[in-house]
C-alpha cells in the first residue's frame, strides 16, 4: 500500500521447519533440536508466503512484457500476486516511461525494451539509459554497480574513530552515491591494492565484484549503441540524472526538521550510516527505505526540487493535488 519494503524477522512456517529437520539426517542418521515448544510450533503457518506475493513486481512484469506475453494482467502465475501488487508495478513502469497501452494491451515502449536488456531494477536501468543525456554514463555505471553488490565499506565498531578519520577524504557533502563514487575512483587509482583496502576499511572482494558488474553493464550499453561519456569533476549532472530516475523515491525537509516522502507523505529519517546523517538538505532522493524502530532512508543524494518536477511534472502535479485534497 505504501511501497515500503521491510526486512522483518519472522517465524518460520511448519514447511520450513520440516525442511530444516531433513538436513539433520542427510549424510548420516541425525537429530534436529527445535528451540521452541510444541504449542508454539502448532501456531506456525502451514506454508511460507511465496516471495512473489511479498515483493515489488516491476522487474517481473518488465521481463514478462519483454517475452511478449500477450496479457500480463491475466498471466497465470503459480502463486498469483494480488491485483493491487500488479497494478502498483504497472504504475511504476508507466511513470518510468517503460510501458504504454495499445488497443487495450499493455506493451513496452522503445525505452522499456532497452530497460529489459539490463539485469537490474527498472529504476536503475532507467538511470543508465538517461545518463547520456547528462553526459555522465561512466559515473552512473559505477554508481549502479556499487549499489548492486553488498556494501563495499566495512565499519568495525571497535575502530569507529579510526574509520571516521580515514573516510573523511572520500566524503561528499552531496550524498552517499558520490561518496561511493570517490571510494571507487581511489580504488582504481591504486589498481585495487589490497593493503590500501585494508587501510581504508574497503572490502576488496566486493570491490572486485563491482568491477565485474560494471564491465557487464558497460557491455550492454555498447550493444545498445549508447554514447559512453564521463562528466569528470562535474557532479551536478550525476545528481540530476539520479533525480530524473529516482524521483519516486524523494523526500523533502519539513518546517519541523523531519522528512516526509513526496509520494506517500510518510515520515522518514536519514539512516545513521549515511554521510548526510548530521545534515539537513532540503530535498533528497534515496535508494530504499529500511524499517527498524523508525523508517530510514538508505543511500541518499542531495537534489534540487526543480529537477524532480522537470523529471515527472504530471506525477508531481498529481501528488500536490492529493496532498491539498
From TrEMBL:
The record ties this protein, via InterPro entries, to:
DEAD-box_helicase_OB_fold (IPR011709), HA2_WH (IPR048333), Helicase-assoc_dom (IPR007502), P-loop_NTPase (IPR027417)
Q: Does the keyword ATP-binding apply?
A: yes
* Gene Ontology biological process terms in this record: positive regulation of transcription by RNA polymerase I
Main EC class the enzyme belongs to: hydrolase
Q: Which SUPFAM superfamilies match?
A: P-loop containing nucleoside triphosphate hydrolases
As recorded in UniProt, its EC number(s) are 3.6.4.13
Helicase-associated domain spans which residues? 88-181
Q: Which keywords, in A-to-Z order, does the entry hold?
A: ATP-binding, Helicase, Hydrolase, Nucleotide-binding
Write out the GO MF terms.
ATP binding; double-stranded RNA binding; hydrolase activity; RNA helicase activity
> Catalyses which reaction?
ATP + H2O = ADP + phosphate + H(+)
- Look up keyword Hydrolase and say if it applies: yes
Q: Name one GO cellular component term.
A: nucleolus
Q: What is this protein called?
A: RNA helicase
Q: Which organism is it from?
A: Scopus umbretta
Show the taxonomic lineage. Answer: Eukaryota, Metazoa, Chordata, Craniata, Vertebrata
Amino acid at each position: 500500500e505504501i511501497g515500503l519494503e521491510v526486512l522483518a524477522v519472522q517465524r518460520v512456517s511448519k514447511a520450513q521447519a520440516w525442511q530444516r529437520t531433513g538436513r539433520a539426517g542427510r549424510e548420516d542418521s541425525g537429530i534436529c533440536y527445535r528451540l521452541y515448544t510444541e504449542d508454539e510450533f502448532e501456531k506456525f503457518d502451514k506454508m511460507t508466503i511465496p516471495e512473489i506475493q511479498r515483493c515489488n513486481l516491476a522487474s517481473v512484469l518488465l521481463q514478462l512484457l519483454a517475452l511478449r506475453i500477450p496479457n500480463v494482467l491475466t498471466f497465470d502465475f503459480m502463486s498469483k500476486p494480488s491485483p493491487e501488487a500488479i497494478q502498483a508495478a504497472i504504475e511504476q513502469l508507466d511513470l518510468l516511461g517503460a510501458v504504454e497501452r495499445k488497443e487495450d494491451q499493455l506493451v513496452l515502449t522503445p525505452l522499456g525494451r532497452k530497460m529489459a536488456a539490463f539485469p537490474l531494477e527498472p529504476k536503475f536501468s532507467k538511470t543508465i539509459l538517461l545518463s547520456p543525456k547528462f553526459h555522465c554514463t561512466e559515473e552512473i555505471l559505477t554508481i549502479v554497480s556499487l549499489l548492486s553488490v553488498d556494501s563495499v565499506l566495512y565499519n568495525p565498531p571497535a575502530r569507529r574513530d579510526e574509520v571516521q578519520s580515514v573516510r573523511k577524504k572520500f566524503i561528499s557533502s552531496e550524498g552517499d552515491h558520490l561518496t561511493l563514487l570517490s571510494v571507487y575512483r581511489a580504488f582504481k587509482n591504486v589498481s585495487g591494492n589490497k593493503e590500501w583496502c585494508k587501510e581504508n576499511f574497503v572490502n576488496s572482494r566486493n570491490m572486485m565484484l563491482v568491477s565485474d558488474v560494471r564491465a557487464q553493464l558497460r557491455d550492454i550499453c555498447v550493444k545498445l549503441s549508447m554514447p559512453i561519456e564521463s562528466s569528470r569533476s562535474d557532479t551536478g549532472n550525476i545528481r540530476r540524472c539520479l533525480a530524473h530516475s529516482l524521483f519516486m523515491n524523494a523526500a523533502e525537509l519539513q518546517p519541523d526538521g523531519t522528512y516526509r516522502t513526496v509520494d506517500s507523505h510518510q515520515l522518514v529519517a536519514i539512516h545513521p550510516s549515511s554521510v548526510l546523517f548530521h545534515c539537513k538538505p532540503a530535498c533528497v532522493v534515496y535508494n530504499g527505505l529500511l524499517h527498524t524502530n523508525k523508517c530510514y532512508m538508505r543511500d541518499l543524494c542531495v537534489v534540487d526540487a526543480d529537477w524532480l518536477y522537470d523529471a515527472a511534472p504530471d506525477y508531481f502535479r498529481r501528488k500536490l493535488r492529493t496532498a491539498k485534497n
